[in-house]
Specification:
The protein is α/β, with parallel strands linked by helices and 250 residues long. Helices cover 31% and strands 20% of the residues. It has one domain: Rossmann fold. It is built from seven helices and eleven strands.
């Protein structure tokens, strides 16, 4: 894993977006379609802002898959990740090929339909984050490292739900849904390249656990260290507990 530490969240977003543009251009130079997996959340704001304003990507040839979504939350809810992706990625780029997870439909049917499409061919690039509890997508600890299912129905732990409230998506923890649809760990790892965007001090403990602790279901995003083509972008705050904060490989 390549670890890059930048000055702040804006720099993280810009550097990760530059990397993403280069990766997509490389894929599109040899393929008709580039498949991406898109993450959401407050940590992705600067990245998506930089990515969607960058020149040089033929977005009509990009196909997007949704990483995770709450169960039971309508798409027009401010916290809906469908809403998030429509506003911050799809509408700004004109992507026409996208597969959203509708949290109001039958969860089993949603993950069957979207999972079947995703499993048909590997994603070229996955954009992900790391949760305050170390989760990858909505795979909270202890995460399932073994299942081959593309998507899972998961129960959100208290730390995850508190994070969603703390980021301002919900007025109270009782308003945060208890269950979600999530891409599985193995499915994320099937992407040919993974770019993780993880700024902010509140992620520092999780970053240390996932990058310097054991590779374990108790630190789900630690599994990214096993991927042959993964890069993580940190700012000085999120990297503050690491033993070495200079740009390095691990």
């Amino acid at each position: 894993m390549q670890i890059n530490v930048l000055a702040n969240g804006v720099a993280v977003g810009e550097a990760a977006a530059k990397h993403a543009v280069e990766s997509l251009q490389r894929v599109l130079s040899v393929s008709d379609i580039a498949r991406i997996i898109a993450a959401t959340g407050a940590a992705q704001f600067e990245f998506l802002k930089a990515l969607t304003t960058a020149p040089g990507i033929d977005w009509q040839r990009v196909e997007m898959f949704h990483l995770d979504e709450y169960i039971g939350l309508p798409a027009n809810h401010p916290a809906s990740f469908c809403n998030y992706l429509m506003e911050r990625l799809i509408s700004k780029t004109g992507i026409r090929r996208y597969h959203l997870l509708d949290g109001t439909e039958d969860p089993k049917e949603v993950i069957r339909r979207v999972g079947s499409e995703l499993a048909s061919y590997p994603a070229d690039v996955a954009f992900v984050g790391i949760g305050e509890n170390g989760h990858l997508a909505f795979n909270d600890p202890p995460a399932d490292f073994e299942t081959d299912e593309p998507y899972l129905i998961v129960e959100l732990d208290e730390a995850c739900r508190k994070q969603q409230m703390g980021e301002g998506w919900f007025p109270s923890i009782s308003d945060v849904p208890t269950h979600a649809l999530s891409m599985s760990i193995k499915q994320v790892l099937k992407a040919k390249e993974i770019i993780a965007i993880v700024p902010e001090m509140r992620k520092a403990q999780a970053v240390k656990a996932c990058l310097e602790g054991d590779i374990s279901p108790m630190a789900p995003a630690s599994i990214l260290r096993t991927h042959p083509n993964s890069t993580i972008y940190l700012d000085k705050d999120s990297a503050s507990l690491l033993q070495h904060t200079a740009t390095r490989s691990a």
